[in-house]
Amino acid sequence: MGLAVHHTTQPSTGPVGILARQLTPTTAGHTLACLYAADRYHQAVTEIGPRLREGQIVITDRYTTSGMTMQRHDGVEPTFLDALNLPVLPADLTILLTGTPDIVRHRLTNRGAHNRYQDRPDSTTNEINYFHQAADRLATTGARIAHIDTTNLDPEAVADQAASLVLQTVHGMKEAS
Ligand SMILES: Cc1cn([C@H]2C[C@H](O)[C@@H](COP(=O)(O)OP(=O)(O)O)O2)c(=O)[nH]c1=O
After folding, report:
1. What range(s) does the Thymidylate kinase-like domain occupy (predicted)?
2. Distance from the alpha carbon of residue 44 to the mean position of ligand 1, in angstroms
3. Whose CA is nearest to atom 13 of ligand 1?
4. Fewest CB within 10 angstroms: 35, 62, 65, 177, which?
């Protein structure tokens, strides 16, 4: 179909993202929430915005919803996280990959934890709830949010569903413009 796609991640590989990753084991709460949000604003200006203006599709692994979720593990209030993250360049589509706590925990154990949040066995159920709550709060802004229940899907099937959702969104935006 010839669409130009740029794939990226949050935290980014830029200076603020590197700092956020470096400090995650030893810092917590408001400091980390601000660092991850700063990385998101910086990446929107330096990487994502310019590519969107060139007409590319930008896919990012984690975005605003992660910022509205992760530091709740450290007790940061949702209102603080929302105020920090909702003004960031809004996504045209947010896809939430969901799964039962058992299957998410099983996959995490097989893959290995990437940070101290994922080390705690009880964190999975909390995080799933936090993500659903963040998605509900994001939805009140009019954001387009889709859920893919990955419990019984392999990665290829998840990717297929995600690609269809992206294409639907792109077509919808083209028709509306
Ligand atoms: C984007 C973002 C990430 N994080 C943390 C938690 C994530 O697990 C980690 C991302 O590290 P990563 O190694 O990409 O882990 P995963 O594969 O689980 O995404 O960064 C936050 O705490 N807040 C944020 O806003």
Report:
1. 3-158
2. 17
3. 114
4. 177
Q: Is the CB of 70 under 6 A from ligand 1?
A: yes
List the CATH number of the domain containing 78. 3.40.50.300
- Is the CB of 114 within 6 Å of ligand 1? yes
Print burial letters for 29-55: b (CB count within 10 Å at least 16), e (below 16).
ebebbbbbbebbeebbeebbeeeeeee
Q: From ligand 1's centre to the CA of 171, what distance in Å?
A: 30
- 63 pairs with which residues across the strands? none
Q: Is 17's C-beta closer than 6 angstroms to any atom of ligand 1?
A: no
ipTM: 0.93
Q: What is the pLDDT of residues 158-176, one digit of tens each?
A: 999 999 999 999 999 989 8
Residue numbers of the domain that contains 172: 5-176
How far is the C-alpha of 54 from the C-alpha of 70, rounded, in Å? 31
